[in-house]
Automatic annotation (TrEMBL), chain A:
<keyword id="KW-1003">Cell membrane</keyword>
<dbReference type="InterPro" id="IPR042106">
    <property type="entry name" value="Nuo/plastoQ_OxRdtase_6_NuoJ"/>
</dbReference>
<dbReference type="GO" id="GO:0048038">
    <property type="term" value="F:quinone binding"/>
</dbReference>
<keyword id="KW-0874">Quinone</keyword>
<dbReference type="GO" id="GO:0008137">
    <property type="term" value="F:NADH dehydrogenase (ubiquinone) activity"/>
</dbReference>
<dbReference type="InterPro" id="IPR001457">
    <property type="entry name" value="NADH_UbQ/plastoQ_OxRdtase_su6"/>
</dbReference>
<comment type="similarity">
    <text>Belongs to the complex I subunit 6 family.</text>
</comment>
UniProtKB/TrEMBL annotation, chain B:
<comment type="function">
    <text>NDH-1 shuttles electrons from NADH, via FMN and iron-sulfur (Fe-S) centers, to quinones in the respiratory chain. The immediate electron acceptor for the enzyme in this species is believed to be ubiquinone. Couples the redox reaction to proton translocation (for every two electrons transferred, four hydrogen ions are translocated across the cytoplasmic membrane), and thus conserves the redox energy in a proton gradient.</text>
</comment>
<keyword id="KW-0677">Repeat</keyword>
<dbReference type="GO" id="GO:0050136">
    <property type="term" value="F:NADH dehydrogenase (quinone) (non-electrogenic) activity"/>
</dbReference>
<keyword id="KW-1278">Translocase</keyword>
<keyword id="KW-0830">Ubiquinone</keyword>
<keyword id="KW-0408">Iron</keyword>
<feature type="binding site">
    <location>
        <position position="129"/>
    </location>
    <ligand>
        <name>[4Fe-4S] cluster 1</name>
    </ligand>
</feature>
UniProtKB/TrEMBL annotation, chain C:
<dbReference type="Pfam" id="PF00146">
    <property type="entry name" value="NADHdh"/>
</dbReference>
<feature type="transmembrane region" description="Helical">
    <location>
        <begin position="163"/>
        <end position="184"/>
    </location>
</feature>
<dbReference type="GO" id="GO:0003954">
    <property type="term" value="F:NADH dehydrogenase activity"/>
</dbReference>
<feature type="transmembrane region" description="Helical">
    <location>
        <begin position="120"/>
        <end position="142"/>
    </location>
</feature>
<keyword id="KW-1003">Cell membrane</keyword>
<keyword id="KW-1278">Translocase</keyword>
<feature type="transmembrane region" description="Helical">
    <location>
        <begin position="78"/>
        <end position="100"/>
    </location>
</feature>
């Protein structure tokens, strides 16, 4: 429990709460980005530099930019927020509460294993080359399946974006 | 209809690969700008360096004096008539006794005003003047001002200064002897 | 000799790099104006100090003394946060760039590099991808249509060109088999071998990377986010005073970093030709110790790297005053239908050549 870990955990929790409680969706997104940064810090503490960098590039750098993009376009604010019926609120509270319950129930009995044993501990496990070897040797099939998934998504996006004959173009 | 032989026939061909790649054109453009980088600069660093006036430049007006330091203007109004921009106004007056050393003719201009905002510096007043009194100086520009009324130049700013050394290069140039006699004339004048 | 802990040395390096980035960015504003003037047959600012060298100072005084203006309905906190973020992200990326090899004093070797991490390239890439937030937040918080449009243009442009940039990088990484910028630099010159800089192995990749670097730093011909003919002033329309200054400054720091990355990745970084020959010549003919000769090489290499960086900065400015701005659809077409496929082809070619053993 180094002070850096405590600080990062504090930032992560606080900004995660900020995501939920912020009134302004743009603030929400910014808090989420801060959360990702705190998580990347955790990865760094775990000596997983590649994961930390990729987390920033992919989540903070690309996905959240698109989020922000859409939110800015939609111009969401308090006035345009749809009024939700009480039933929906209650349902949401019940669903969220039971998720919390499950999480607590699942995690309460876990005993922290503490520091890894010196004999089996490998500080380089999170480095790029090790990760690459694991990905391309042990998990080749899932990796390739995931890339096929991305390919499908890309094809879908191109199909959506393609102009059809006779369609009005702006 | 063909007016000149210089017209170039423009053919719209499909672009070649080099043209479509765009990079050769970029390097061409870069080479052009790089040539300009080493060219002689066109800048005139103004306060230190002044561009020479053109030999036919017509600038700020001056009302000349004659050899004895008397105002030449007789307020005939020909300059005002000649002025296409109607920039000149004047009030004529009769010369009193004892003013012979101030005004050359019996009639003189009590006030003489040129509006420099209206003036187009065409020089027609200079041509119209029968007494060779008004001249456009070749080396002076009407300077910028903040207020409009500051552009109306009265006699205080138009009449040539009495000091013979402050003559403009255009108009009558005094010889040293003439300047000396003028100086002595002025010294005798009652203030 | 004072004994410095490794971390202390690193913090000194980081501080120096930080100061240098700011200094270079400051003088970039001056260089931009002078180069623009020279390319247009003018002389540029030459009044403040000798050759106008104090012009940046005068500009800074002007920037600081201008009115701080907050547009009505603007999100004040984010309005201030935007330029700060742009500046922070611009400054962060230079931390991993190796500005020189090691200096050794006695038993201690010091690296002229902020932090050596084995994901250096990814770090630069990640921070660059964050740079767009400063622009987006600033544009949105201004509560102005044109600012928002400028911000959105900037964001979509950056995202589009990041893809091609990353793909052109992959080809370099395939050759170097590492993400560490220091290792990539060291690979480009090996003692006793005829070794080429990466530009020889990756000409196409370099062109793609260079074009993307222009787009990422929002420089002409890709300066659509601040296209004044269509968007008034782009994302910083509403900004005044030093907040605007920070945005402009961040752009120049980004140029500096982009130039440094290009020098390191493709032009040998702190290596210069015949450095090993020079070192052995000094050791053999002039009785220098190996460490002293190496230190000299390091210093010369750092100077060389900065010369390369300045050359790139000059190139950025040269292009700016040569090429007209792209239209937005041309920009997007270039990014998505030309650069990305080209980058993929480049990866394929590189892979094939590595497989055939032509390049290593």
């Amino acid at each position: 429990m180094s002070p850096i870990f405590l600080f990062l955990a504090f930032v992560a929790l606080l900004s995660a709460l900020g995501v939920v409680f912020a009134k302004n969706p743009v603030h929400s997104v910014l808090f989420l980005i801060l959360t990702f940064f705190a998580l990347s810090g955790h990865y760094l503490l775990l000596n997983a530099q590649f994961l930390a960098a990729v987390n920033i590039i992919v989540y903070a750098g690309a996905i959240m930019v698109l989020f922000l993009f859409v939110i800015m376009f939609l111009n969401l604010n308090v006035d345009t927020e749809p009024h939700k019926p009480a039933l929906a609120k209650i349902a949401a509270a019940v669903a969220g509460g039971s998720l919390l319950l499950i999480l607590v129930a699942a995690l309460k009995d876990i005993a922290p294993t503490g520091a890894p044993q010196d004999a089996t501990f490998d500080s380089q496990i999170g480095m790029v080359d090790r990760l690459g070897l694991v990905l391309y040797q042990d998990y080749l099939l899932p990796f390739e399946l995931a890339s096929v998934l991305f390919l499908v998504a890309m094809v879908g996006a191109v199909m959506l974006g393609k102009r059809e004959a006779g369609e009005r173009n702006f | 209809m063909q007016l000149t032989n210089r017209a170039k026939k423009l053919e719209k061909k499909p672009m070649t690969l080099a043209e479509r790649a765009y990079l050769p054109a970029i390097f061409q453009g870069l080479s052009i700008t790089m040539r300009h980088f080493f060219m002689k600069k066109a800048t005139v660093r103004y306060p230190e360096e002044v561009r020479p006036f053109s030999p036919i430049f017509r600038g700020l007006h001056v009302l000349k004096r004659d050899e004895q330091g008397r105002e030449r203007c007789t307020a005939c109004g020909l300059c005002a008539v000649a002025c296409p921009a109607e920039a000149i106004t004047m009030v004529a007056g009769e010369r009193k006794k004892g003013e012979e050393s101030l005004y050359r003719e019996e009639k003189y201009a009590i006030s003489y005003e040129i509006n420099m905002l209206r003036c187009i510096f065409c020089g027609l007043c200079e041509e119209a003047c029968p007494k060779a009194a008004v001249y456009l100086q070749a080396d002076k520009i009407a300077p910028p001002r903040y207020e409009r009324d500051e552009f109306i130049y009265g006699k205080d700013r138009l009449v040539e200064p009495v000091s013979p050394d402050a003559r403009s290069i255009r108009g009558i140039q005094l010889t040293p002897e003439q300047a000396d006699s003028l100086r002595s004339n002025l010294a005798q004048q009652p203030v | 000799m004072i004994e410095l802990p490794a971390l202390g040395w690193q913090s000194i390096v980081i501080f120096v790099v930080f100061a240098l980035s700011l200094l270079i960015a400051t003088y970039c504003t001056y260089a931009e104006r002078v180069i623009a003037a020279f390319l247009q047959d003018r002389v540029g600012p030459d009044r403040a100090g000798p050759f106008g060298l104090l012009q940046p100072l005068a500009d800074a005084v002007k920037m600081f003394t201008k009115e701080e203006f907050f547009p009505g309905g603007a999100n004040k906190a984010l309005f201030i946060f935007g330029p700060c973020l742009a500046m922070i992200t611009a400054l962060m990326s230079s931390a991993v760039i190796p500005f020189g090899n090691n200096l050794s004093f006695g038993n201690n070797a010091f690296f002229l590099q902020g932090i050596e991490v084995n994901v250096g390239m990814l770090w630069v890439f990640g921070v660059v991808s964050l740079g767009v937030y400063g622009v987006m937040i600033g544009g949105w918080a201004s509560n102005n249509k044109f600012s928002l449009l400028g911000a959105i243009r900037a964001a979509s442009q950056n995202i589009s060109y990041e893809l091609a940039m990353g793909m052109s990088l992959i080809a370099v990484l395939m050759i170097s088999e590492t993400l560490s910028l220091r290792t990539i630099t060291l690979q480009q010159s090996v003692a006793g071998e005829w070794h080429f800089w990466n530009i020889v192995k990756q000409p196409l990749g370099f062109i793609i990377f260079c074009v993307c670097a222009f787009a990422e730093t929002n420089r002409t011909p890709f300066d659509l986010p601040e296209c004044e003919t269509e968007l008034v002033g782009g994302y910083h329309t509403e900004y005044s005073s030093m907040k605007l200054g920070l945005y402009l400054f961040a752009e120049y720091i980004n140029i500096f970093v982009a130039s440094a990355v290009m020098s390191v990745l493709y032009f040998g970084g702190f290596n210069f030709p015949f450095q090993y020959e020079l070192r052995s010549w000094l050791v053999e003919n002039h009785d220098w110790t190996l460490a002293a000769a190496q230190n000299l090489i390091t210093v010369l290499g750092t100077v060389g790297l900065f010369l390369k960086i300045f050359a790139f900065i000059f190139f950025f400015m040269w292009v700016r005053w040569t090429l007209p701005r792209f239209r937005y659809d041309q920009l997007m077409r270039l990014g998505w239908t030309i650069l990305i496929p080209l980058a993929v082809v480049n990866i394929l070619i590189t892979g094939g050549l590595i497989l055939l053993g032509v390049i290593k």
